[in-house]
Amino acid sequence: MKVPFKLLRGSAIAGVAFLLATPALAADIDVTISGINSTSGRIMCRVFNERSGFPIRGALQTVHGAIAEGTSRCRFSDLPEGRYAIAVLHDANSNDKLDKSFIGLPTEGLAFSETGKPAFGVPSFSSAAFRLGADGSRLSLRMSYP
Q1: What pTM was estimated for this model as a whole?
Q2: 24-142 topology per CATH
Q3: How many CB atoms lie within 10 A of CB 72?
Q4: Residue 119, Cβ density class (10 Å: 0-12 exposed, 13-18 middle, ≥19 buried)
């Protein structure tokens, strides 16, 4: 059975277009958090790829890490290349949210990618963002407490 050349050419073009339109999901972000002041609760790590909701809502992935000897680790897997920001919370009472004082300031430990301790509040997505390439990324963050 002969297959018309036009059909083969159309199928090949469609296949190439599909491959080009599908992002490679191969990069990982490995995060090591140090300076954790107690073993109570757990570490909540969130990765964002846009400023909307950063650092609380709209995370692309959320992972939890155990605390051992003042450190924890989190891994975000299978991310396409792009711009990301990481927000880490020491959820000391394991209630899955950032606790705040009566005036709205955080009462639990926080850490962010690409920034030190912000002078006031939390950093913007832009100041915490970094570029993730195909080879992945390893970050070392230090927890800050109020």
Answers
A1: 0.79
A2: Immunoglobulin-like (2.60.40)
A3: 25
A4: exposed
* Structure tokens that stand for 93 in this block: 């009472």
Q: Calculate the alpha carbon distances from 16 to 3, 4, 9, 50, 132 in Å.
A: 19, 19, 11, 29, 25
> Closest Cα to residue 113, out of 48, 53, 65, 23?
48
Q: How far apart are CA 137 and CA 26, in angstroms?
A: 11
CA distance 91 to 143: 12
pLDDT tens-place string over residues 62-120: 999 999 999 999 999 999 999 999 999 999 999 998 899 999 888 999 999 987 556 66
Residue 79 main-chain phi, psi, to 5 deg = -100, 140
Helix (H) or strand (E) holding 7: helix 5-21
In sequence order, which residues have a C-beta less than 8 Å from that of residue 123 and are 6 or more positions away? 55, 112, 115
